[in-house]
Fold each of these.
Amino acid sequence: MSNNQPAKRRRLSDESVPRLREAELRKIQDLPVWEARKAVLEGICSNQVYVIVGETGSGKTTQIPKFLHQSRFGKSKIICTQPRRVAAIANATRVAKEMGCKLGGLVGYAVRFDDTSTHETKIRYVTDGLLLREAVADPLLQQYKVIIVDEAHERTLDTDALLGLLKRMQRLRKDEFHIVLMSATLDAGKYASFFPGAEIGLVQGRQHKVDVMYTKQAQESYLDAALTTVLQIHSKEAAGDILAFLTGQEEIDALCNLVKTRGAQTKGAHGQEKLQAVAIYAALPAEQQAQVFHPAPPGSRKVIFATNIAETALTIPGVRYVVDTGVVKQRSYQTGAGVDLLAVVPISKAQARQRSGRAGREAPGKTFRLYTEAEFEKLESSTTPEILRVNLAAAVLQLKALGISDIRAFDFVDQPPLPALVFVNGRTEQQKQAATQAKQRFRRPQGDHLTALAVLRAFLATGKGKRGEWCVQNCISGRAMQRCHRIFQQLCTLLQAMKLPLERLGDTQDPEPLQRALVCGLFLHAACRQSDGTFKVIGTGQEVSIHPSSVLSGSKPECIVFNELVFTRRNYARTVCNIQMSWLIELVPTYFTKHIPR
Ligand code: CDP
Ligand code: MG
């Protein structure tokens, strides 16, 4: 929030972060962790592994690394992991403001492709995936005296892999170092027993009363119900912002747009005339993420449409009302079917309680659950850890890179079921944000991978100074393209190191080698067209349709491979490539001679 308008987009770290005002700094000291400061520090210093449990918003993430820095660990490096990039960036920015330094000074963040930390940086917020990658070069993470694994209750795959790694480190590292696990739920007992000798400390949260309202009947569309409820709150309820939980970017963008039009016609209660909609989800650029933390302009009320990222990872001040759709988008792996599913599923009771809690941080609040009380009673009590439900291919590769050859013997908090350590399933990074219009212009009949490649080639063929403009003209996200470009460069470097020729790389005149490569990587996701126009996954017999976002939607390829299966109203294959059936037997004979009838 520098006074000068930046001429072009700058990294957050280039901006000097203005220190918070005195009054705000004093307010920080009212956070519940401040009361527990001494006990927290003692707990960490006197145990190698210390688990801190405290309600979301009590100050764990922003204050505890600071406490440590102000203690005898002042000269040491402290690292704090977050399950998502948004949280790493937002929390580092906040702490830099509290400490009056710029990002990359005393406080910094590092996420994939964006590392603001320097040799000065003592408090580093990183994604847990990034720390796992650092561990490839430095398996004992020697440079850190304190390693904080935050949001341990989220049990993401990376967090779980990291915990296993830390346990190994605990055995092997002989110098003084401390592991701190922070969690918003009492599941903490489980990690405490995972690490020998771990202690648990509780931070008593401050929670105001939250009234919970259920719908009388089950709702047909949670999106319609969410919009109606938000508008009703705006027109009937006292001052305070609204936090509404949806499942993903498309829904969030759609509702933000609807509120812009419908919200303008809805008169607010108590003089709050305008309703301002803001979005927060993981893929949102950092500059836009920052908007959710800005107070609504005077005379208006803010509604934040969020994914489950706002459940625990981010605390947004000012929220008095929560709208809970009761659903979340979750990745899961069907071991038997051999496919990854990205599906909208009911949340757990623990998640519903977390969501409600967000309304009572600063004052009494209200939660509107868009489901019936009977439906709530039927929810699972807690969410299944990711490690028990996803395809472990990427994590297995990462652990192998760390020199752990027998994954089955690796110590996980929850041991994954053996069949989930299936065959390694290659996957292409896919850029999601290319707009539909551009997709049509760059459309290649071979499908989405080749289309994406055509976009990248056109981008690279554009002069460096003109690329920003090119992206705008073609409705393509410049940020996504830059990321794509960096991955492309990274892969080129790897290929060069392996002395593989680059000249034929992604030749759009001759797409066959690429199509064949995709068959080799994605053969478990190969499907053939049936007479009714749907496709059947060859290995499993599962029925799928081509996702409407695909450039192949509406065309009739005989045989396809695809990146992932998404379940919404039906099973959809997303990111699809047209292939020849004969390639399957030619390239993966051991698998397909079994499955394709001759
Ligand atoms: O980690 P925990 O959920 O216990 O709390 P925290 O993330 O450290 O947040 C403590 C307080 O700092 C929140 O209640 C917010 O008021 C404030 N905060 C903020 O204003 N902006 C951020 N990016 C992070 C925290
Ligand atoms: Mg936190």
Note: Residues 31, 54, 56-63, 90-91, 94, 293, 315, 317 surround cytidine-5'-diphosphate (ligand 1) (CB under 6 Å).
Amino acid sequence: MKKSIIDPMDLSVEEISDLLDLANDIMKDRTRYQDVAKHKILATLFFEPSTRTRLSFESAMLSLGGSVLGFPNANVSSATKGESVTDTIWTVSCYSDIIAMRHPKEGAPRVAMRRSKVPLINAGDGGHNHPTQTLTDLLTIQREKGRLNNLTVGFCGDLKFGRTVHSLLKALSRYEGVKFVFISPEELKLPEYLKEDLLDAKHLEYKEVRTMEEVMGELDILYMTRVQQERFFNEQDYLRLRDTYILDLNKLELAKKDLTIMHPLPRVNEISTEVDDDPRACYFKQVENGRYVRMALILTLLSLDHEVERL
Ligand code: CP
């Protein structure tokens, strides 16, 4: 595989399966992979803030013996002088072997990709896509549930702007027997284009509700999300909507004993910290899995995925 990853649908189900298998193998003993990407350079270009995605990409490359360069915000790049994203990527692709890029504008990585001389990975573009979070989420679901099919998945919170929701929904739509439950206020419902072009077009089973309580007992996966303050035009709307859903131990009493609670993080108030010690809480497992699945993706895009014998 020698290509850029802009949208989760850029990966076939078979390619995703291979990536998850490789991530699982790395997790068995990562020291076997510690020199595989020696002399390779990852550039991380973050035009928008990040903790997990940027640092997990960097940790992944360093764990493979490679090197990392880049910038954590656009203010220290020539973007401040008016340089286009395309020229920035063209330039950085002369200095690196692979690029991970986050940008607040939807579609920016796809435009930039055309001038990149090396594989480009979308590390989140506006409210659009976040394919490597999706790989992290799929690895977590597979490890927790032992499958990616026959699941009832509830997405809760900001389904309008949440790119992790849009990406994971697209990816899961390809697995048999997955049902979706969307829990959001009216103002933060899933965009129509995803309902019409994806769910309705594929005749997938889904419903939209307003409260967590009415569906909690049905869910195998509960995917909580933060209300995306940075994508609101109006501060008052954000303040009114931000605490609509708070998962606490009382609400969890309605849930299945083997519910998997996920959140791409960062959280604000959506999950009470009292839930953190519940065995169903998997959001910090997602954080950890993100490093290994990004190691697998880097190896695969650099065609280094068969360098180590699998355990
Ligand atoms: N999940 C995620 O994208 O987190 P960061 O914004 O911290 O990278």
Note: DSSP finds ten helices and nine strands in the chain.
